[in-house]
Amino acid sequence: MDFLQLKYFQVTSKHEHVTRAANELYISQPALSKMIRNLETELGVQLFDREGKHIVLNEYGKKFLKRVNQSLSALEQGVTEVKEMKNEKVEIITLYVAVGSMLLPKLVGEFRDLYPQIRFNLTQHPAKIKKGLAYDFAITSEELTDNERAILLEEEILLGVPTSHPLSSQDTVFLKDLEHEKFVSLTPGNSLRKTTDRFFTHIPFEPDIVFESDDPATVRGLIQTGLGISFIPSILWRNVVTEGIKLIPISEPRCMRTIYLSWPTGELHTDIEKSFFEFIIRFFRDIAHHK
Predict the structure, then answer these.
(1) Domain 83-150+259-290 adopts which CATH fold?
(2) Which residues partner with 213 through β-bridges?
(3) Would you report the helix, strand and coil content of the chain in percent, each value rounded to 5?
């Protein structure tokens, strides 16, 4: 199979209508139909179910489309990066960051002090990771499929409470004792929110979340003003926790998360990317050791 077959399949999948897809691609309907049949023959399965004049992507087609989208996205990004390298004589590192975004200015700045010719493409939107996003490295708290990974750090998750809250006098808390507390939280889908939701797997209640925000600074502000309690990462958030918040260890269950550096399985790294890998491992090691 070749690029044109994949592109034609992608456009046909979008429309689920051969005529409309052919019009967008500026080819004849018979030529497009033949291209799709040849692709199906090569794969040994039908990718569409035919319903009269209409076609519907079936389960084989949906699975194949997912990989086609990833492949074409990576190819298009590669073409763009090569052109930029040629024109600007720079190398580009594409970094997907789901956690620790507050560290980015320092991380990127220190690496560019060593390698001024490097340019970064940064993505900080977790939802995009499931839509075929191409990246060289990813910083996440989840184990990404089809990726190799290295552990950057493991950190304890603490309970942040207003200093005026009765819990602020305690040295430790149990999660099961927080049933009647009001929580403020990051929105569903956020990496930290996914982690903290799992803490309640074996607790006979769900947290009473009264405020949600997609901005960590807003969550911290809501705690500070006494509107609720929340979970605070002990390492990555320690330099941004404001006055008015008491951090309390959680004795049971022990609340932890792991931060990973991931990269697509089998990807060959350039010399600069290898240097960045070594740099980021040291960077997070230094952070973990300066608690």
Answers:
(1) D-Maltodextrin-Binding Protein; domain 2 (3.40.190)
(2) 186
(3) 45, 25, 30
Cα separation, 11 vs 261, in Å, equals 34
- The radius of gyration of the chain's CA atoms, rounded to the nearest angstrom, is 24
Residue type for 251, please? S
Residue 242 has what DSSP assignment?
A: P
Closest CA to 279 of 119, 104, 110: 110
Residue 229: how many other CB atoms lie within 10 Å: 26
Convert 94-119 to b/e letters by CB count within 10 Å (16 or more is b).
bbbbbbbeebeeebbeebeeeeeebb
Q: What is the CATH number of domain 154-257?
A: 3.40.190.290
Say whether 59 sits in a helix, a strand or coil: helix
Tokens, residue 184: 């403020």
Phi, psi for residue 222 in degrees, rounded to 5: -65, -35
Average pLDDT, integer, range 100-113: 91
Give residue-wise pLDDT tens across range 75-103: 887 777 777 666 666 788 999 999 988 88
pTM of the model: 0.66
175 within 8 A of 253, measured Cβ to Cβ: yes
Helix (H), strand (E) at residue 91: strand 91-97
5-14 average pLDDT score: 89
CATH architecture of 3-76: Orthogonal Bundle (1.10)
Closest CA to 165 of 192, 184, 186: 184
Helix (H, G, I), strand (E, B) or coil at 270: coil
Asked whether the beta carbons of 120 and 92 are under 8 A apart, the reply is yes
What is the Cα–Cα distance from 83 to 79, expressed in whole angstroms?
6
Which helix H or strand E contains 276, and what residues bound it? Answer: helix 271-289
